[in-house]
Specification:
single chain; 263 residues; alpha/beta; Rossmann fold; 14% strand
């Protein structure tokens, strides 16, 4: 299955790297475009084709990924229109551009999806929310197969795509800021930077795996490490007194309102 990624920026390149990490993926089936090719030469070294010709890049592609800025979407689709075939499908990663407007720009009727992965695609650990407004089972199967290969695909309604952007894509930065704070605190209580980083990163990884593998609510796992008059509950209560959960929720809502105001 040939895949073309239009836009080899941070997200497009991360997706490409995730695909190239897959042991049985044929790198010759991947084509990535970008105006400045010097920044994605590593993809070429790994076996992918790179170019600045969007139209030629989609020839024979089953999946066309538009990993470009929202304001460029319609212009690029108009550029691609003469070469788009009925057996292809289109996936837009652009925030705020709905499926209907994409379909109205297309001159060939093909399945259109919106998706919101995050930069963890590069290590095959993305949480990718996908929306589509049709019942083409073959296309849905191919899209899920594609995004499951670089993490986990989650089907949602299109009206939740902005929320998916904040929780899944912006969420990477929120979690990393939390990890940074843990490292800073670790240094203050005696660890060197390298050790604090290692302990914090593995702790966050372990906490996430507990939730994923046990299927529990976070509070159920928290209960296992809080004892009467213990240090864990003392720390948790102080964090809540300082507005930890409230600040995080407010941050997520602020990001969401920013998207809704700009879309």
């Amino acid at each position: 299955m040939k895949i073309t990624i239009i836009g080899g920026g941070n997200l497009g390149a991360s997706i490409a790297k995730g695909l190239l990490n897959i042991e049985d993926f044929d790198a010759s089936n991947l084509h990535v475009t970008k105006r400045n090719l010097t920044t994605i030469e590593d993809l070429q070294h790994a076996g992918a084709t790179i170019s600045s010709n969007n139209v030629k890049a989609i020839e024979g592609a089953r999946i066309i990924i538009l990993a470009i800025k929202p304001y460029k979407i319609h212009k690029v689709i108009e550029e691609l229109n003469p070469e788009i075939k009925e057996d292809q499908l289109l996936v837009s990663l652009a925030t705020g551009i709905d499926i209907k407007s994409i379909e109205e720009t297309l001159t060939t009727s093909i399945p259109v999806f919106r998706a919101m992965p995050n930069t963890a695609t590069g290590i095959n650990e993305s949480a990718t929310c996908v929306a589509g407004n049709h019942n083409d089972e073959s296309s849905w199967k191919d899209v899920h197969r594609f995004f499951n290969s670089i993490g986990l695909s989650i089907e949602i309604k299109e009206e939740l795509m902005d929320a998916a952007t904040v929780l899944g894509a912006c969420g990477i930065a929120f979690v990393l800021r939390f990890v940074r704070a843990m490292v800073q605190a670790g240094i203050q209580i005696g660890f060197d930077t390298k050790t604090a980083n290692l302990v914090a990163q593995q702790t966050v990884k372990g906490a996430t795996e507990l939730l994923l593998k046990n299927g529990h609510h976070p509070e159920a796992e928290i209960d296992k490490v809080t004892t009467p008059r213990g240090c864990t509950i003392a720390g948790l209560n102080e964090m809540e007194h300082q507005g930890f959960s409230s600040a995080l929720i407010k941050g997520i809502l602020t990001s969401y309102n920013q998207i809704k105001g700009n879309s």
